Predict the 3D structure of the following.
Amino acid sequence: MKRPPEYFEKMGRQLWFKGEYYRALKLMQEGLEYYPSDFRLRLGVALAQLRLGNYAIARDILKELLSSSPNNGDALCALCEAYLSLGKKNDALACANGIYKAHPKSGTLLEHLGMALLEHGLFDEAIKSFSRALAAEPKRPYSRLGLGIAYSGLGKQRKAVLEIRKAIRLKPDFYEAISYLGNLFYDAGQKAAAVKLFFSIPMESQIDPVTLSRLLAWCKGRKNLAAKIPEIGRRMEKLSSGQGIDGFLRELEEQAALSSQDKLPLPAKLRFIKLGANVPVNPAQKAMLYDIERRLKSLYARPRAGLSSVALPSVPRARAGDADGFISAFAVYLKSIADNGKQFSRLPMTSWSASLGIDSIAPYAAALIKTMYDENAQFGVSQSSMDALLAALVNTLKWMPPGLRGSDWIAELAGVIVAFWTPVDMLERLFLMREILSPLEKKSVEPAIARGRAWRKWLGWRPDSKWTSPAAQLIPSLPQTYGARKSVKCAECGSPISDYWDIAQAGDAPPVRCGDCAPALRCSHCKGPMRQVGAGKKGAKVYRCMQCEKRYQVKFKKLRKPAR
């Protein structure tokens, strides 16, 4: 007997709320086979795709749904999230304004919108959304908490404390708000008041590792609280995700040590990271480098043999969370460099990447991503961490002159993310980020796009003008052959470039190179494309053919001899 659409929607929603997004997607796709025009099932598919990180697919489905129902609040809010994740701030704010006009009295919807804006760091817009939610429904504790977090993000700590206290008055057992308020006090130096708040939360309701670590540090120095230490330890162990209490405590203690930035010496004895002499690294960046070094030690058995190494390092072991932490930490470090470019203005631009350690860190990141693809395992790396790293790479590339020495590994790493990371819209995401750049900055990002195409070609991906969007497969009214909308030809060989549907409309205009021409160097043995894998003697670079794997030392773009 054929089940009604309500069955698929209800069961899919239950799976979705449990965090089982893939199962929810499959169930609602099954429902669409019977009821292809059901709005709720199509919306459920879009929401599942959104949570799985397939933002472009979710965006297309949601746009189609809104074409027939332009004021649907859930679809508008989800489309706003998709645009935010794709870096399209103006489009996201247009969706937010649509919600304000169509649903000014829906506290739940406005609160959800505020949380999405807050998650992406748009604190001013989040305040606007939370304030509207509270104007519609004053007794919304989560909106009060969101308002407090947004004020804290803007540095307005007094307003933040007032709003969070209001949230706690509305919901006395609002332990998340109590924990956040305690940490605000702790950061402000009011540790006794903070700990009093921490202890007001039942231990079984403690879910914040930072709060627990601060409680533990407070109890360790006080005999009258020593009896609390085992209970805190048991709670930490339960939250440790299988890595054990010792490892969990060690990680928390190391993170706490990193906050004492003034006590850190210059990073002169790092084993995995190579820094230039007299690099102007500030205390915060010293902490970042030590954090990256610590995570590399947990991922890799030993450092690379040296800059002359011709192979990417292998990943012999991976503890849950370390790979994600390494990717996130590297992204934060790159962002700090891009945000503080003036700090490094006295470094020779011909060697800045090596001096700042980027050339020594990037090969580990590239190897990790490639290993995840080869072994079909992600080691717990999240989509948000990979998004942050790609964004940081683009921000770093955009202020570098094209072809500058030191940019090779940054472009290589961005290309590896585009080619090897599992969601198929990573290249489109790179194009969307590239849209906001000036013409000169676009030229700097072009090598990363070229590297991605080269790796995709090496992996066996083939451009296909008849490629059908997954969204079009679900919704027949969408155009089926997105790649046929626009033709872009390779600047070198003239062959058409058609990677994915909307990519052809996202600023991918000549001069661009296809995957065959992207590396610019070809193997003299099999004519296959080559990529850089290290540095040789006297300024030469070591390249390896993607097809036959022969290695060469290249200087001044001329083949010399195979590397031994």
